[in-house]
Amino acid sequence: MSRLKPYLNVLIGLGLAILALVVTGAAVRLGVVPLIALTFDPSDEHLSLIRRGLMLVAFVVGFWAYVRLAERRPATELGFAPKTIAFWIAAGALMIGLPLVLLYLTGAYTLVAVAGPGGMLGVGLTILAAAMFEEIVFRGVLFAIVWRHFGIWPALLIPSLIFSALHIFNDNWGGWTPLIAGLAIGIFWSLVYVRTGNVWAVGLNHAAWNYSIFATGLPLTGQEDWRAMAPLQTDLTGPDWLTGGLAGPEDSWPIVAMVIIVTGFFLADCWRRGELKRRPTEDDG
Questions:
Q1: Radius of gyration of the chain, Cα coordinates, nearest whole angstrom
Q2: 239 Cβ contact partners less than 8 Å away, ≥ 6 residues apart
């Protein structure tokens, strides 16, 4: 039984965290939002924005409740660190933005129109809420629990592999290249969490990455739905191995190679600083 205890702890912790997120999400979606609609009668557009913003709040409150009630410690991961958060937002945008600029310059992508702000706010709130939800689950909960019970290397690999594998259900997404890309960027985000210990930093880095792809009018992880609402309209004019095709830039070989290289250097730097050699305590998350 003692050998199974770490595995049970991981499953129980993940289950409690997801339960907390589901409860707070349901309370907002089924309770707070309908109450706001009934009381203030906002337009459909405004109500959609309110719902997306409140879902973000629900996920953060759910994580806070899980940490306080299940792990019985302060939720230090939710601390407000403006300089750290701003740095990682910029890093997320630049990490994907610079390769995209290079692909525009090579003619792989062609800018065909400037559509204006359009759905930037609504899509942005959706991207932010989704990114925070994913980082809370995969880094704030699963990574932290696996790190605590099994060490840093399983913690880097297992949540990132699950994170990557779950995205194969997206439209136009599949094969080894996207799986490797998802694994590499998942490890990168885990390392951001190791470096900062802050869910906002890693969640907003993730959101900035996704938003940069959306803003250029390219498919985001194989999804085409938002391209028409992007401020820039872009055509793919190069071969799929260069542009990523309908899967988007995350399936572009040069971008996948860039992510692997950056993650490798970041991993080496974290090792050099000794950040991977410690075992987290309960207070570390």
A1: 19
A2: none
Q: Are 132 and 59 in contact (CB under 8 A)?
A: yes
Task: Tell me the longest C-alpha to C-alpha distance in the chain.
Answer: 62
- What is the phi/psi pair of residue 279, to 5°? -105, 130
d(CA 31, CA 99): 43
For residue 267, which amino acid is it? L
Length of the chain: 285
Query: Could you tell me if 253 and 241 are in contact, meaning their C-beta atoms sit under 8 angstroms apart?
Result: yes
The pTM assigned to this predicted structure is 0.94
* Alpha helices in 106-232, H assignment, sequence order: 120-135, 144-150, 152-166, 176-196, 199-215
131's tokens: 């990114």
Q: Each residue of 183-207: pLDDT tens digit?
A: 999 999 999 999 999 999 999 999 9
> HSE-up of 202 (CA within 13 Å, CB side)?
27
